[in-house]
Specification:
The complex is a heterodimer. By secondary structure, chain A is mainly alpha-helical. Chain A is built from three helices and no strands. Chain A is 76% helix and 0% strand. The longest helix of chain A has 31 residues. Chain A is elongated and about 55 Å long. Chain B is globular. Chain B has a domain of 220 residues. Chain B is an all-alpha fold. Classes of the chains: A mainly alpha, B mainly alpha.
């Protein structure tokens, strides 16, 4: 299977993720969009590792690290979202504007 | 499948044996091990200490950082790599490990009284601070995309939690969420770039990437991937136009955490960027140098112009920190693949700038935290007549602000001058002119605070009480800056020796 299939898929996922981060207002959906971006990275890494002659196993190891760190990040992110929900009963990112300029 | 490079510096050893018993140079890892051990110790000790004595986490952390510093000193002169070449010990790495330890000690001095005054999460704070510092210490040695990524996340994630430590405060929450979203988003962009670098070169080690790029020349995928990686790092070092999170995060976070973010976290990002740009991508510098020039000019100018109208000392320092990042970025805009001499000068000037910036910025933050300790105010208008209330504090803050402005008699002057000279020698005159203009703009807002402290009448007369620990931290920082001004080789020699 040509590697371009995987690269196009991952580029699409990454773009959807970026769109989601910029356009979504609900904090949890923003988190989901970031997960899409990170998974696009994983697809890239694994595809390169499996299909390219010159690439060794490094990409797959890298992908494992990305998965682990992404889990940690989401843990922290959801904790912050819960914190904000407790304090303001709201998880709309756009409403967070106590500080400007 | 060809197994090349994975944890294996030696090709004659079978992979299974290499995996079961990887050859690790433990001495090279000593600073990280000591710091990680200290962080765990602080976390566990906090569980068993009675509520009134939670402050002991601070002396424990200080001991841990001093131990780390001792490990760094014990490595001095050593040049080695371990973990299959992904982890390197050289003078550059040791210099920054040492700098991170010094930053950690000053942050501890700033934090102690702030967190002891009725703050519920003291032990956790010190644990998180040490973890984040560990990220910086790892970053100094990381010579591989994976370890660079791990190091930068190790810096960021505990820093996000530290930002949110004032759980009931809506500003702290908002600061943490903004920091979190920007940080994670930038990591994702950076990782996408790294995955493309890996695809284009088939390597994750920086030296292998460099030699592979040398063969493939001006491949568009290389240019694209470098672009993604640079954008990711630009968020971390709060370069314009990726700076929006910084002032809000600094304002909402507990102030010692803001001091940490604007020094340790930012310098961590710069270390990663320096290693990547000078070690992995210098041969394709013609493609990315103009982007750095624009980034540097924008960062300096926008940072300084917005700083002009700030009323809040932490936000002022945040924007001033953004502008200071711009001066460091100038060094990246000078890299020339055909002229090692220019590269060395640019690299050294960036190192000197980062070291001096860390000390003067921490000093200014310490003064702001000390001032706000009793009155709780961060507004610049309240600094009127500080000279009559607390002469020592006023002189200290003035010294740090003058240093940040780049005026004699403090070391900040040399920092700016070295970058300026590097730009002149590289014949990038327009950037030198932009730097000069920015130094003038910056002088306005720094000196406005100084003028307010010395030449205006105070509204309240009672002196500001500063704890001895903070006095010592500020005094030492000011002394180092003054000594480095009188005798610049103090810092420039170190930088000269750590060029790779």
């Amino acid at each position: 299977m040509p590697i371009s299939y995987f690269l196009v898929l991952s580029a699409l996922l990454f773009s959807i993720g970026v769109y989601g981060v910029l356009a979504r207002r609900h904090a949890v959906l923003v988190l989901l969009s970031i997960e899409l971006m990170l998974n696009a990275v994983n697809i890239n890494l694994v595809a390169f590792s499996a299909l390219l002659e010159k690439a060794g196993l490094d990409g797959q190891v890298f992908a494992l690290f990305v998965i682990a760190v992404a889990a940690a990040e989401v843990g922290v992110g959801l904790a912050i979202v819960i914190l904000i929900y407790r304090n303001s009963q709201d998880t709309d990112v756009g409403e967070l504007s106590l500080m400007k300029w | 499948m060809v197994v090349d490079g994975f944890m294996s510096g030696r090709h004659d050893v079978p992979l299974a044996q290499e995996l079961a018993q990887p050859s690790v140079n433990w001495h090279a890892l000593a600073p990280e091990l000591v710091l990680a051990g200290a962080a765990c110790l602080v976390l566990v000790a906090d569980l068993f200490v009675p509520r009134g004595a939670k402050w002991v986490a601070m002396p424990l952390s200080a001991a841990g950082i001093i131990g780390t510093l001792a490990a760094v000193v014990s490595l001095s002169g050593v040049e080695t790599t371990t973990l299959g070449g992904t982890f390197e010990i050289d003078t550059f790495a040791l210099l920054f490990k040492g700098l991170f330890c010094v930053i950690g000690l000053i942050i501890l001095a700033i934090s102690f009284h702030y967190f002891r005054a009725g703050h519920p999460y003291q032990g956790e704070y010190y644990f998180l601070m040490l973890s984040s510092l560990l990220g910086g210490v790892v970053m100094s040695s990381a010579r591989d995309l994976v370890s660079l990524f791990i190091a930068i996340e190790l810096i960021s994630i505990p820093a996000i939690i530290m930002t949110a430590l004032r759980k009931g405060d809506a500003r702290s929450n908002e600061a943490a969420l903004k920091f979190f979203l920007f940080s994670v988003m930038s990591s994702a962009v950076m990782l996408y770039g790294m995955s493309l670098v890996y695809g284009a070169t088939g390597a994750t080690k920086l030296d292998a990437i460099r030699s592979s790029i040398g063969r493939s020349g001006d491949d568009p995928i290389i240019v694209l991937s470098v672009f993604f990686v640079v954008v990711g790092f630009a968020f971390k070092i709060s370069a314009v136009p990726f700076h929006f999170w910084a002032p809000d995060t600094y304002e909402g976070a507990p102030s010692p955490v803001a001091a940490f973010l604007s020094t340790a976290s930012k310098i961590g990002g710069f270390v990663g960027l320096l290693v990547l740009m000078f070690q992995a991508f210098p041969d394709v510098a013609d493609n990315w140098r103009p982007a750095f020039a624009v980034l540097a000019a924008l960062t300096m100018t926008v940072g300084n112009l917005i700083a002009l109208r700030q009323q809040h000392i932490i936000r002022l320092l945040a924007y001033s920190g953004i502008a200071q990042s711009g001066y460091v970025l100038v060094a990246f805009a000078l890299i020339d693949p055909s002229s090692p001499q220019t590269n060395r000068q640019a690299f050294a000037s960036a190192l000197i700038y980062l070291a001096i910036y860390a000390i003067m910025d921490l000093g200014a933050f310490a003064a702001a935290v000390a001032f706000a300790r009793r009155g709780g105010t961060y507004f610049i208008s309240d600094y009127s007549g500080l000279w009559q209330r607390s002469p020592a504090l006023a002189v200290m803050l003035a010294a740090f602000l003058i240093s940040l402005a780049g005026a004699p008699p403090m070391a900040g002057a040399w920092a700016k001058l070295f970058v300026f000279l590097a730009a002149i020698n590289a014949e990038v005159y327009w950037l030198a002119v932009v730097m000069g203009l920015n130094a003038v703009i910056a002088a306005f807002y720094y000196l406005a605070v100084v003028k307010r402290m010395f030449f205006e009448a105070p509204e309240i007369r009672e002196p500001v009480e500063v704890p001895y620990l903070m006095r010592a931290a500020m005094g030492l920082a000011a002394l180092v800056l003054f000594a480095a001004f009188i005798y610049p080789p103090l810092i420039s020699d170190l930088a000269d020796r750590s060029i790779f």
